[in-house]
Amino acid sequence: MSKNGMLESIDRIARVEEQLLVEYGRKPTLDEIAEEMDVEVNTVVGITNIKNSIERLITLINLSLETIEFFIDQCKRTENAEQLRSMNHRINMEFDTYDELNLALTELTN
Hints:
Layout: H1 3-24, H2 30-37, H3 41-77, H4 81-109
Helix pairs in contact: 1-2, 1-3, 2-3, 3-4
């Protein structure tokens, strides 16, 4: 499935889920979503898992950026050379994590 096809499927599942939520007055099951979309439940499960993975990666990327910003702010507040070296090391490690998360997100969405 292409990147656009995946995004369209994720969007379609969200729309159907919202429609059924209103209709049933409760969160629909994956089986009910699949039935409404006229697809196999495994298709809905797979696309939902990919959507959840994308959301988790985006959350981790945002946390990584917040951590980097925190350490940069701490560096600005200290004059202790040892603390600066330690924070610089942590920033570099966090940038590595950020890069790995972005790569995983790119691989997942391409």
